[in-house]
Design a protein that fits this description.
Blueprint lengths: L4 E7 L6 H11 L17 H6 L6 E7 L6 H13 L3 H7 L5 E7 L7 H8 L4 E7 L6 H12 L3 E7 L8
Parallel strand pairs: 1-3, 1-4, 4-5
Antiparallel strand pairs: 2-3
Length: 167
């Protein structure tokens, strides 16, 4: 694996926010212009749109340009850099490279678990998404087990933390 290419998938129980997170990543990387964005942009099948769920895994290539940070993110980065005193870190952070992010959005419904298994065989890591209003559910444990058995890097992320029902 090249040091600036990341192959990953978003996995979670149904309705925990996988496609919404993918949408935000597409938006933040500029892969899809804001004016062309629509909810669950990767869910292309009519049945997916009608039912509001992902049925087929969907791969997408994004390029993350760390140099294109917004003013707010630039300010945060400057504050973090000021906290770090290592001259080696300063030297490394000056050599920022672009990243190719190959994402596979996956279904969360148990009936489409085979799609998740296929996706996980093609990636090095996963974002494990857990809905803060629902907590860990059956499919969360199922996909986590598959990811662990494949030795994938697992990054846990909690979604919907702004909900009044968040735990």
């Amino acid at each position: 694996m090249s040091s600036n290419i990341r192959n990953f998938s978003i996995i979670a129980h149904i309705d925990h926010g996988k496609s919404t997170l993918a949408d935000r990543m597409l938006e933040m990387t500029g892969t899809i212009e804001a004016r062309n964005m629509k909810e669950q942009v990767l869910d292309k099948m009519d049945l997916e749109r009608e039912r509001g769920i992902t049925i087929k895994m969907t791969p997408v290539r994004m390029v993350y340009y760390p140099r294109r940070l917004s003013q707010e993110n630039t300010q945060i980065k400057m504050e973090v850099d000021n906290l770090r005193s290592s001259s080696e870190h300063e030297r490394k952070s000056a050599q920022v490279e672009d990243y190719i992010l190959n994402l596979i959005d996956t279904p969360g419904h148990v009936d489409f678990a085979y799609e998740v298994s296929r996706a996980l065989s093609a990636v090095e890591g996963v974002i494990l998404l857990v809905d803060s209003t629902q907590g860990v559910e059956a499919q969360t444990l199922s996909v986590l087990s598959v990811a662990k058995s494949l030795g994938l890097v697992i990054i846990p992320v909690v979604s919907k933390i702004d909900s009044p029902n968040a735990r």
